[in-house]
Amino acid sequence: MKAFHTLLFSTALSTANALAAAPDSTVEEAFNRLDTERLAVLQSELNDSYGRAYAGYRLAIARHLRDEGGAGEALGQVLKLLEVNEAAQTDSNRAALLAMAYGYKIALTPLSAVRYGPKSHSMVERALALDAENPLAQLARGISQFNTPGAFGGDKREALEAFGRAVSLYHAGRGGTTADWGLAEALVWRGLTQRELDREREATQSWRDALAARPDHRWAGALLEGNER
User: CATH: 1.10.1660, 3.30.450, 1.20.58, 1.25.40. Which one for 4-220?
Assistant: First the structure.
């Protein structure tokens, strides 16, 4: 299996309450165990298109990390669910999730960046226009800024600002029933950005904060363990 923290660092583009419409915490529990069978079952049991897309997004990442195949197929289903649904144009959560799914498509097939890079950026802007106070939209904005090369508009300092904004919004109660996951994810990305900016001590604290928010957050634990060796 690929190292969890290394792969997520390079590829995961990863997830009025920003996550209120998301599936319940069982999806994240299964994802943190990389339990692809459970994720597939959960996806099939969800009734709404957003919930199925969210579970499918996590399933695609988990399959990729487990080297078991089917990541592209799972992600293709996510894109189909969100692209054919006009709600992605009117709901900030759906637009943000679609932006991250496009970004992960690039991670799986880098040559698709020419096609999906502009799509991802457009959906980030759409999510923010619909609700700039949506922490999931700010998280998507930060991930986009972090992963986009500087020559194409990416900026680590703007990414850090977006992650900080997402953290503040989650702390303010904008995360809904799964705020513990959204907060932890934003803190992990904030730490990654701080590390890129040579702020190692702050990065370590961000990852500790992520584990405090969600003790089972596997990515945060892996990063913290690697940083403290």
Answer: 1.25.40
